[in-house]
Q: What sequence folds into this?
C-alpha cells in the first residue's frame, strides 16, 4: 500500500465508523498483487468496469509540451502498465461482451479491444479479413474473433432506440465532453459499419476452425508484462483460458445471425442467412452440457428464430408448429378468413400475446395503405376480434375500434355479437369474464346512435343473459330518448337560424367569431352585439391577445368599455398579423385603430403612429430579406428620422421601435444622419441610438486613408462594458456577505442578450464586419493565446489592451463572437473574410474537421471552386499552416505533406515527418499525383523502399517520372504543373470535406 493510501486509512480509523474508502487507481500501479485481490472481493469498489474506465482514462490523457501545446499521450511504461491493467480486469471478466457493453461506452470499449489486439500481436496494418486464423497463435486468433464479434454486435445495438441521458447543469466543459464523446462514437460506428462485411467474413472463417480456442487470462497478461513471452509460453497452444470450439461457434453463430437479421431490412436474403445461423445456435445449445463461455439471451434467440421463420417462409419439420407459425403461414397463403377464425379461437385460448395480434392488424393496414384491395373488411374484423380480446383482459378499447363505431352497419354489429358469443364458448367460464363481455355489450349500446342497430343488440341473447335487469332498463330508457329525438328531428326545419337560442349560446358564438375576424368593421359590429347582450371586458376573451406592457395602462384607462375593448383587440390582432408577416391585414387594423383613438386621445394617436412606423419598417425589411433590392421610399426614411428626433413628453415609447429605426438607418447606409443630425439628448437617453451612432461613425471613417481611432475607441469601450461583469458585496438579511455579479454599461440597461438581438437585425456587411473585427480583437485579448488567435479585417483600429481585464466575461465574449459570425454567414455564406474568421474560431476551439471544411469553403468561393488561383491574402501562410495542423490532428498525414508545398517556403521537415507516419487515415498513395515537389517525391520513394512497400514505391516513382516535373524545364512549365496539381488537390479535398 502506498504512503498516501496508508495515511488515508489511518485518518479514517481515528474517526467515527464510516464506509470503506474506495481504492484509487494509482494504488494498483504501486502494488502488482493488489488487482487480483481486489477483483476477488464480493463487491469490489470500484467495480471492474469502473476500473477499466479509470485505467484507460489515465493512460490516454494528453500531455502538454513546453510551448503549452496539447500533445498525444506519451507511450511510456506507466501508460503501458495502465492499459495492461485494464486488459487484466477484462480477462478476469472472461471477456464477457454482454457485461462490458453495458458498463463501457463505445469509445472506451474500442480502446480496450484495440489494446487487446496490440498485446496479442495481431499484425499491424493488415486487415483482419486478410489474416488466416488457422496459422495464428491461439490467443492472437481469439483476440481477432473477440474484436470482430464486438464490431457487429455494436452495429446491431446502435440501431436500437435509446433514451437520451440528461446531462446535469449546463456547464460548457461538460457539454463539450459529451459532444466529443458523441462525435467519437459516431466516427467509430461509421468505421465499424464500413467494415461490417469484413467482420462477418472473419467470423465465418472462425466457424470453419474445429480446434479449441484460447483467450488471455490474468496469468498470460502478467507474463506479457514481465516480458517473458520470449519463451513462447503465451503463444503456445495451451496458454490462456480454453474455450471449446462448440462454445465459440455457438456464440459466433448467434452474433452473426444478429447482424444478418439487422441487414434484412435492406436485403431480404439476409433473413435466410440469419435463420441458418440461429438454427446452428439452437443446435449447439442443445449439444452443450454447460454454457460457461456462451453469453446470449435465449428469449431473444427464440424471438429471432420465430421472426426469421415468418420472414423466410420456413417450414421447420423438426420442431413443433407454434401458433405464430400457423398465423404466418395463413397470411402467406392469403387465407384471411382462417386468420380471423384463428383470432376468434384465440379469444378463448389466449395463446397469442396481444402485441402479436396488434402487429398482424398493423400488417394488414399497411397492405391497405399500399393499395391492396379487398382487405378493408378483414381489417375491420381483426380490429373487432382484438377489441373483444382487450375487453376480456380488462384493457382499454383501442382508438381504432372506437373510430369503427362512429360509422357502424348491420354486418359489423352482427359480427361483434357473433365473436362475443364464440369467445364465451368455454367450459367452466368464470363469472368475471362474463361480466367483462357484459360491460363490452353495454359500451356498444352506449356508442350506437342508429335505432335499428340498437334493437339488433337489445334483442340478442347476450344482452339478456349478461346484463342485469337494472342495466337493461337504463339502456332501454336511453334508446327511447334517442327514438324521441330522432322523431322530432325528422320534421323539416325552415332554417337553422329559426331555432331559438339562449343568450349564453349567442355570446359564445359571437366570441368565437370575434377571435376569428380580421376586418375592423366586423370586429366593431361584433363587439357592439356582445356589449348589447352582456356588459363585460371582452378584451380578455382570448388569452393569446397581447399588447406591449408599455401601452397596457394607457389603453385600460379608457373609460368607455366598448372603446377599450376595440382599441385593445385591434392593436393585439395587428401585432399578431405583423408577427406572421400578414402586413396587409396589419395595416387595415392599425389604420382603423388610429382613426378611432385620434378622436379622443393624442397620446394614443402618437402610440399608433409609432407602431405604424414600426410596421412599415418591418414590412420593407421583410421584402429585402426575400431578395428585393428596392431602397425604402423617401417618405419612410423621413418618418424614421422624425421618430428619432421626437421630443413629445408622456408618450409611452417601446425600445424596440427605436432599436429597429436605428438598424434600418444602418442597413440603408444613412450614416451621415446618425452621426450628424440625431439630437445629443436622444443619444444619451436611448442606448440603441448611442450604439448606432458609434457604429455609423466608425464605419464612415473606415474607408479613409487614415482610420480614425477616436470613435472606434468609444465603440470599443461600450462593447467591453456590455461583455463585462462587476462584483460587489451585499449583506443578506441574515447578516452574511454575498457576492453579486451584474452588468455594467454607461448606456443604461443593455444586456448582452439585447445586444445580440440588436446585432441580428443588421444586414449591412460593413457594419457586421466592423462588429466582427471588434469582438475578434476583444476575444484575442481575453484569451491571451498569441499562437492561436482568430483573424478578421480592420483589427488595427482597436486598442491592444483592456485596463480592467478581470471584469470581462470571457465566456460571454466567446459566445457573442461565435453567434455574430454564424449570423453573418446566414446573410452571405460566400464572404471569404467571415469564412476565415469562422474557420479560425473552430480551429482555436480544437474542432479541426469543421475548421478545415470552412477554410476550404473560403478558398472555393474566391476561386470559382478552385478553377482559378486562390488569392494569397485568403490562403496566407498562417491559414495554410492551420490547414496543415487540422489534417495532422485528423491523422491525414499525406494531405499534410501535399499542403506543405503550398507555403511560400516548402516546409520539408513537417512533410517528411508526416510521411513517416504509418497510421494515416487518408487515401495515402492516391494523393501522390498531387505532389509536384521532386524532393518530397524522392523522400517518398526512399521511405517505401525502406519499408519494402513495392506497390506504393511504384506509384511514387510514376509520379516523379512525369516529364512536366523535370527540374530542367523552364520555370513557367514548372509553375503550370504546380498550379494544375494545386487545383486538383483542393477540388479533391473539397469533395472529401463538403
A:
Amino acid at each position: 500500500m502506498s504512503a498516501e493510501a496508508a495515511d488515508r486509512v489511518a485518518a479514517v480509523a481515528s474517526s467515527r465508523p464510516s464506509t470503506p474508502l474506495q481504492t484509487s487507481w494509482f494504488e494498483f500501479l504501486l502494488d502488482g498483487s493488489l488487482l487480483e485481490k481486489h477483483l476477488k472481493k464480493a463487491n469490489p469498489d470500484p467495480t471492474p468496469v469502473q476500473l477499466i474506465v479509470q485505467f484507460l482514462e489515465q493512460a490516454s490523457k494528453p500531455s502538454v509540451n513546453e510551448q503549452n501545446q496539447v500533445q498525444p499521450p506519451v507511450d511510456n511504461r506507466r501508460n503501458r502498465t495502465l492499459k495492461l491493467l485494464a486488459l487484466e480486469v477484462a480477462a478476469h471478466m472472461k471477456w464477457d461482451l454482454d457485461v462490458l457493453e453495458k458498463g463501457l461506452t463505445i469509445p472506451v470499449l474500442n480502446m480496450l479491444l484495440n489494446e487487446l489486439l496490440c498485446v496479442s500481436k495481431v499484425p499491424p496494418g493488415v486487415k483482419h479479413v486478410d489474416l488466416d486464423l488457422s496459422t495464428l497463435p491461439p490467443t492472437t486468433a481469439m483476440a481477432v474473433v473477440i474484436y470482430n464479434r464486438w464490431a457487429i454486435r455494436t452495429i446491431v445495438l446502435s440501431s436500437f432506440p435509446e433514451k437520451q441521458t440528461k446531462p446535469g447543469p449546463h456547464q460548457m466543459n461538460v457539454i463539450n465532453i459529451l459532444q466529443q464523446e458523441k462525435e467519437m462514437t459516431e466516427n467509430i460506428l461509421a468505421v465499424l459499419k464500413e467494415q461490417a462485411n469484413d467482420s462477418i467474413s472473419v467470423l465465418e472463417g472462425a466457424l470453419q476452425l474445429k480446434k479449441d480456442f484460447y483467450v488471455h487470462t490474468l496469468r498470460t497478461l502478467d507474463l506479457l508484462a514481465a516480458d517473458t513471452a520470449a519463451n513462447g509460453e503465451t503463444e503456445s497452444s495451451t496458454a490462456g483460458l480454453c474455450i471449446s470450439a462448440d462454445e465459440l461457434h455457438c456464440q459466433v453463430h448467434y452474433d452473426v445471425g444478429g447482424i444478418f437479421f439487422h441487414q434484412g431490412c435492406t436485403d431480404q436474403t439476409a433473413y435466410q442467412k440469419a435463420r441458418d445461423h440461429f438454427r446452428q445456435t439452437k443446435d449447439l445449445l442443445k449439444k452443450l452440457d454447460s454454457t460457461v463461455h456462451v453469453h446470449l439471451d435465449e428469449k431473444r434467440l427464440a424471438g429471432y428464430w420465430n421472426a426469421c421463420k415468418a420472414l423466410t417462409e420456413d417450414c421447420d419439420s423438426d420442431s413443433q408448429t407454434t401458433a405464430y407459425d400457423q398465423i404466418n403461414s395463413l397470411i402467406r397463403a392469403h387465407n384471411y378468413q382462417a386468420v380471423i377464425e384463428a383470432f376468434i379461437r384465440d379469444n378463448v385460448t389466449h395463446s397469442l400475446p396481444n402485441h402479436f395480434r396488434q402487429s398482424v392488424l398493423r400488417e394488414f393496414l399497411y397492405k391497405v395503405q399500399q393499395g391492396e384491395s379487398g382487405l378493408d373488411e378483414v381489417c375491420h374484423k381483426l380490429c373487432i376480434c382484438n377489441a373483444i380480446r382487450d375487453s376480456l383482459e380488462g384493457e382499454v378499447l383501442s382508438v381504432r375500434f372506437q373510430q369503427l363505431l362512429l360509422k357502424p352497419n348491420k354486418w359489423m354489429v352482427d359480427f361483434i355479437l357473433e365473436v362475443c358469443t364464440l369467445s364465451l364458448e368455454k367450459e367452466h367460464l368464470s363469472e368475471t369474464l362474463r361480466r367483462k363481455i357484459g360491460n363490452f355489450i353495454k359500451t356498444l349500446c352506449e356508442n350506437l346512435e342508429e335505432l335499428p342497430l340498437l334493437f339488433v343488440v337489445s334483442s340478442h341473447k347476450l344482452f339478456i343473459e349478461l346484463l342485469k335487469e337494472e342495466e337493461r332498463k337504463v339502456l332501454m330508457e336511453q334508446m327511447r330518448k334517442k327514438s324521441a329525438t330522432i322523431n322530432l328531428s325528422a320534421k323539416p326545419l325552415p332554417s337553422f337560424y329559426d331555432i331559438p337560442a339562449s343568450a349564453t349560446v349567442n355570446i359564445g358564438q359571437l366570441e368565437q367569431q370575434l377571435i376569428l375576424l380580421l376586418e375592423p368593421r366586423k370586429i366593431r359590429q361584433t363587439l357592439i352585439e356582445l356589449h348589447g347582450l352582456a356588459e363585460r371586458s371582452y378584451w380578455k376573451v382570448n388569452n393569446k391577445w397581447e399588447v406591449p406592457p408599455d401601452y397596457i395602462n394607457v389603453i385600460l384607462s379608457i373609460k368607455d368599455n366598448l372603446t377599450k375593448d376595440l382599441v385593445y383587440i385591434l392593436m393585439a390582432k395587428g401585432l399578431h398579423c405583423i408577427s406572421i408577416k400578414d402586413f396587409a391585414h396589419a395595416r387595415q387594423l392599425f389604420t382603423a385603430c388610429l382613426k378611432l383613438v385620434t378622436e379622443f386621445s393624442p397620446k394614443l394617436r402618437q402610440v399608433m403612429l409609432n407602431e405604424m412606423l414600426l410596421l412599415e419598417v418591418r414590412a420593407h425589411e421583410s421584402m429585402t430579406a426575400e431578395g428585393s433590392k428596392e431602397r425604402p421610399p423617401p417618405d419612410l426614411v423621413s418618418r424614421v428620422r422624425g421618430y428619432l428626433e421626437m421630443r413629445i413628453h408622456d408618450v409611452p415609447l417601446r425600445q424596440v421601435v427605436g432599436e429597429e429605426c436605428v438598424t434600418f438607418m444602418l442597413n440603408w447606409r444613412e450614416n451621415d444622419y446618425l452621426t450628424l443630425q440625431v439630437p445629443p439628448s436622444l443619444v444619451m437617453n436611448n442606448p440603441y441610438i448611442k450604439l448606432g451612432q458609434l457604429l455609423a461613425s466608425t464605419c464612415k471613417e473606415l474607408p479613409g486613408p487614415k482610420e480614425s481611432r477616436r470613435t472606434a475607441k468609444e465603440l470599443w469601450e461600450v462593447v467591453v462594458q456590455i461583455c463585462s461583469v462587476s462584483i460587489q458585496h451585499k449583506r443578506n438579511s441574515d447578516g452574511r456577505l454575498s457576492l453579486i455579479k451584474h452588468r455594467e454599461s454607461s448606456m443604461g440597461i443593455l444586456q448582452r442578450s439585447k445586444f445580440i438581438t440588436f446585432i441580428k437585425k443588421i444586414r449591412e456587411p460593413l457594419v457586421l464586419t466592423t462588429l466582427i473585427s471588434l469582438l475578434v480583437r476583444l476575444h484575442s485579448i481575453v484569451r491571451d493565446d498569441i499562437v492561436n488567435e482568430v483573424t478578421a479585417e480592420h483589427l488595427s483600429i482597436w486598442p491592444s489592451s483592456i485596463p480592467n481585464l478581470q471584469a470581462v466575461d470571457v465566456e460571454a465574449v466567446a459566445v457573442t463572437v461565435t453567434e455574430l459570425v454564424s449570423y453573418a454567414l446566414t446573410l452571405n455564406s460566400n464572404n471569404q473574410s467571415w469564412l476565415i474568421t469562422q474557420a479560425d474560431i473552430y480551429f482555436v476551439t480544437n474542432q479541426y474537421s469543421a475548421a478545415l471544411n470552412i477554410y476550404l469553403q473560403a478558398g472555393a468561393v474566391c476561386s470559382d471552386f478552385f478553377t482559378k488561383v486562390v488569392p494569397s491574402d485568403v490562403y496566407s501562410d498562417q491559414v495554410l499552416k492551420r490547414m496543415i495542423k487540422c489534417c495532422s490532428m485528423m491523422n491525414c498525414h499525406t494531405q499534410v505533406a501535399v499542403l506543405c508545398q503550398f507555403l511560400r517556403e516548402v516546409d520539408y521537415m513537417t512533410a517528411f515527418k508526416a510521411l513517416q507516419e504509418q497510421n494515416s487515415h487518408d487515401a495515402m498513395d492516391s494523393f501522390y499525383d498531387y505532389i509536384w515537389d521532386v524532393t518530397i517525391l524522392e523522400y517518398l520513394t526512399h521511405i517505401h523502399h525502406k519499408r519494402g512497400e513495392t506497390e506504393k514505391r511504384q506509384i511514387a516513382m510514376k509520379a516523379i517520372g512525369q516529364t512536366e516535373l523535370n527540374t530542367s524545364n523552364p520555370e513557367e512549365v514548372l509553375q503550370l504543373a504546380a498550379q494544375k496539381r494545386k487545383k486538383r488537390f483542393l477540388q479533391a479535398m473539397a469533395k472529401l470535406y463538403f
